[in-house]
Amino acid sequence: MTELAIHGGSPVRSEPWPRWPQWGEAEAQRVQEVLESGVWGGFNPAVKEFEAAFAKRHQAKHCITAVNGTLTLEAALRVMGVGPGDEVIVPPYTFIATANAVRLVGATPVFVDIEPDTYNLDIDCMAAAIGPKTKAVIPVHFAGLPVDMDRLLSLAEQHGLAVIEDAAHAHGSTWKGTPMGTLGHIGSFSLQASKNLTAGEGGILITNDDDLAAKLWSFANQGRSPEGAWYEHGMLGSNLRMTGWQAGLLLAQMER
User: Fold this and answer.
1) Rounded CA gap, 126 and 235, in Å?
2) How far is 255 from 97, CA to CA, in rounded Å?
3) pTM (2 d.p.)
4) Which residue among 4, 28, 54, 185 has its CA within the 20 to 30 Å range from the CA of 65?
5) Backbone φ/ψ region at 119: left (φ over 0), alpha (ψ -120 to 50), beta
6) Residues noted as catalytic
7) Spatial contact of 203 and 67, defined as CB atoms under 8 Å apart
8) How far apart are CA 213 and CA 192, in angstroms?
């Protein structure tokens, strides 16, 4: 056996690893367009353009962008009515944001073990963990590998659970031909710097439910109604809006 490089052997690679994220003239051009538009915030046309492109790519009816993937999980939980006294099933093998979002809405995360071969939620363990306080489940498609969504959705339907897909790693992944994020009630994506689609930071929510989409948009826009006046606030909300800079970068990144 060849001696390891750390012990004086020949390294398997002599050049530095490729930088990440990758970018080029297309990204620079998109950012320049946002700069010259003078509309740098969340109402730059690039935001809607990206939302439409991402929705089409993932066969989703609605797409709402946000500033990061932690807040998208929180928003999804809130519009699904999860709050104090509720329990939410989550895997222990995930980034802390999955559980943090549950705590931020006042609910309790219940950790359910993973499968050793997929690192994804073990559906048998999930079944054993469901109790009278269980309100939702957040399956994490770890490293882009889908959870067994047939079994999970069947179990969730039996118990009336909300299904919020944590697809932070799963841009473009599919389950039997269906894009991740569209199988549950809501799909949540991250655009953080390590992801395969990134703007440095950012988040995405997708759904095929009109009512949920309206609530998600409202929560992300200080409780405004999608069809209401600017200072008409019909529900509790926050400001999750993605900037034009991020959307411009993402439009170019989607072409890679």
Assistant:
1) 33
2) 28
3) 0.93
4) 28
5) left
6) 95, 166, 169, 192, 195, 224, 231, 241
7) yes
8) 23
Cα–Cα dist 246/21, whole Å: 13
Q: What does the alpha-carbon distance between residue 161 and residue 250 come to, in Å, rounded to a whole number?
A: 33
Write the CB contacts of 56 (distance below 8 Å, at least 6 apart in sequence): none
- What string of pLDDT tens digits covers the 256 residues of the chain? 578 988 989 888 888 888 899 999 999 999 999 999 999 999 999 999 999 999 999 999 999 999 999 999 999 999 999 999 999 999 999 999 999 999 999 999 999 999 999 999 999 999 999 999 999 999 999 999 999 999 999 999 999 999 999 999 999 999 999 999 999 999 999 999 999 999 999 999 999 999 999 999 999 999 998 888 889 999 999 999 999 999 999 999 999 8
Report the topology of domain 40-253: Aspartate Aminotransferase; domain 2 (3.40.640)
CA distance 223 to 204: 18
Residue 235 tokens read as 């529900």
What is the C-alpha to C-alpha distance for residues 161 and 145, in angstroms, rounded to an integer?
A: 22
Q: How many CA within 13 A on the CB side of residue 53?
A: 15
Contacts 24+ apart (CB under 8 A), 30-37: 30/248, 30/249, 30/251, 30/252, 31/245, 31/248, 31/249, 33/248, 34/244, 34/245, 34/247, 34/248, 37/244
Q: Which two tokens stand for residue 202?
A: 């950012």
What residues have CB less than 8 Å from 243, skipping those under 6 apart? 40, 41, 42, 44, 47
